[in-house]
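Troubleshooting entry. Yesterday's outputs looked truncated, so today I'm pasting the complete records for two proteins to confirm everything comes through intact. If either block looks cut off, that's the bug. Protein one:
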Amino acid sequence: MANHSKNRRKAHVEGIGRKTELLMRGFMRLPLVNRWHPWLKESKTDMRWLPINQDIDMPGDAPMPVDLLHRLIDEASHRVIMDYCGCRKGWKCKDYPHEIGCLLMGDSALEAQRFPFREVDPEEAHEHVRKAVAAGLVPIVGKARADNFIFKIKDRHRLLTVCFCCECCCVTRFASYAPLQYLEPTFTVLDGISVTVDAEKCKGCGKCVKRCYIGAVEVDGRKATISEYCRACGRCAITCPTGAIEVKITDPDFLEKAHEQIRSYVQYD
């Protein structure tokens, strides 16, 4: 990934007014805001994208990233599916299904409020994941302190969140306003993953730029470049018409490392 954060274009969230945007940018620049605001604290939020690309370059017989999610489902004490996605419904999404809502796991999932939900068995949870992936939604999994607020759940470290995100409506879009030093510990890149551009294949069409939810892709000199803001969700690679963008996992133990990290900060069984 190219390091050009100093010259990074200012990402803009569609549908957000200029005053609101300036307010959010200013808030993110407050001194030590990531030390006192629970949504930005490393101990309170740690979310990881699980790219769904079928052509991920994997080492040997290593499992696909989404297999981590299926493992977490089997281990969980409780599994709750929201009846709809609040983000897509609120923003009236035209590209992805509204009825595929968040999957919450752990004892605290049963305390959810504000949104209608149902408790499901492991097989129904697995099927929910399969439907989401088939629809092109990319799961992000971990501990999100914002969800304790959204669903009115007391933070007892007993809640595991899985959000099936679209780049056009998901609340994660607002992470594009955060400085890199806030993103690194809270929206962590999956262990051992990289996203690269093959300059010979790239035609500079810019479709990947429009698909990036966080503004980490730019076309520079008629070629796409990916900055260190990239969270490795894999959407740009799915979008590229020439196959110039490659998602690669180099560490065969990536799943175990990610699983161990998640288990270190949230109990859900």
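Protein two, checking that the full record survives here as well:
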Amino acid sequence: MEGMIASLLRDFEDGKMSRRQLVQTLALAVVAGPAAIVAGAQSPPASASAHVAAPWKTVWLDHISYAVSDYKKSTDFYTSLMGWEVQNDNGKNQATLKIGEVGGIIIRNNRQQSGGATPDGPQRQTGQPPRPPLTGVINHVSYGIQPWDTDKVKAELERRGLNPRPDMVGDNFKSYHVFDPDGWDLQISNKTSNSR
């Protein structure tokens, strides 16, 4: 896994991939991480470009699942700050939200296994082996918003007590990082399309 990440970073630094492509590829690598680690133990890939081409193309982000300490608090945070729409809320431990026309998010209370936080989620079937220890973390997720006014976005984040940290790359990319109620790094930017 480390070799693949190093290769991706080299490709990014050499201008062979955009920042968006790097982040998307790293996010997918994190999701596929445990399986990739098991497979990689036998023969680690020399580079990301050595992989066989996928037989399909990803065309939609269906949903992201957040395991949080208080699903209601996180749901309120994201609906209030980001304008996401609650699609359903079971009133106990989980809500599904719509993220504009991008996709969806499931926010659910974290399930703790004995001995630590390693959520397996509700889909784990009896008889399946437990999830391998998590070794990767998604650093942050960036969402593009409209309308964008750098000063007004900063002022609104400060008004909410979120202590925005600027992340301005080049002349055109503007963004701020804030922490959500569980300490996840949320980046809010002016980019609303794939163009980088």
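Both blocks look complete. Sanity check on protein two: The longest strand covers residues 103-109.
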